Amino acid sequence: MIEIRETNQVNPAEVLRRRACEEKEVDGAVASILTAVREKGDEALFAFTETFDGAKLDNLSVPAEEVAAAREAVGKEFLSVLEQAARNIRAFHEKQVRQGFVLAERPGVVMGQRVLPLEKVGVYVPGGTAAYPSTVLMDVIPAKIAGVEDVVMVTPPDKEGKVSPAILAAASVAGVDNIFRVGGAQAVAALAWGTQSLPRVDKIVGPGNIYVATAKKMVYGQVDIDMIAGPSDILVLADETAQAPVVAADMLGQAEHDTMAASVLVTTSKALAKEVRRELEHQLPCLSRKEIAKASLENNGMILLAPDIKMAVAFANALAPEHLEVCTEEPFALLPLLKNAGSIFLGSHTPEALGDYFAGPNHTLPTGGTARFYSPLSVDDFTKKSSYLYYSKEALQKDAQQVQAFALREGLDAHAKSVAIRVRDTEEPVG
User: Fold this and answer.
1) Model-level pTM?
2) Burial of 115 by CB count in 10 Å (0-12 exposed, 13-18 middle, 19+ buried)?
């Protein structure tokens, strides 16, 4: 199924070249959808929902009664799970809240920074091959902690025009303000420009298929987005102490997401590499999404042998995986050496699934090697910063010559005069 290779035979970029051609193929289709929604509003949304989702709707908004019914439908046990997960996520993200600051160390000078919440945020929640209530919690709770007043959720309906009860229940737990049954690139367009039913938002967050990701990329600048997400990926870094069944299960857990997902093992143990390959073949047939997982492993799966742990760590940093599991004897010893990863899971008893659903850290993570410069979704993503500055006349007089010198050096004499006119009874412009 998967060939065992040496790390020096693999360029990490191989793992990341999964969407470039496909993206170009959908650019034209997405651009047409965006234009139609921008020009026709709800009319285009109804038409695209019927075409792509098979649902003929007369109203896009999900009423409160449907949300209440969804809470009943999922049952008390799952509702309790959602609420506990929400508490864990909330506790983690509350530690991320930033405060503004004030500096008043020089006489007559006051300056500072304010941290303000965005006013409206759109959250995209997939609803195609699988419904993800966890995405609702992960994307909405940080926004609410940041102070966002209006969180708008969009998610595609089924052919009957219904939204997954699990998604609606999660929306209720997380505190979503408005829910609309619309998905795909058309939902992104609606959030970016607004329609008769959907409000224009300041930022769009949340994962989706390639059409959604491409649409987010195209509307960036009109609105902010969280990141340009690609297919999901995991790297398991393991030594001889790792358990092959555990490693294989975690690789398959990633592979079942999407045929484009990448599951990679880098290990210093040849014996473990062989055992993991056997375990993958043994566990795969038991999965309900085995065809997806099989295609993912065949297209993007890798088992790599590293000569030592130093080389394994170097490969991990070069790959910059979305998820990085460290299944070694002393995982915390490696933590300071791991520079590029969306989220790191330490030890053999910490599966990625903990982070996906329940533990608290966010699961909206940078993919495709972008963990080199992107971070997981956080409270910061739902805030903006504004600086302010005050000078008394005396303070301005003290700094006037220096400011004018800068302005004239840059050839901006009006800048210099804007200072001089305020202090001309005591200062002459530099010139």
Assistant:
1) 0.91
2) middle
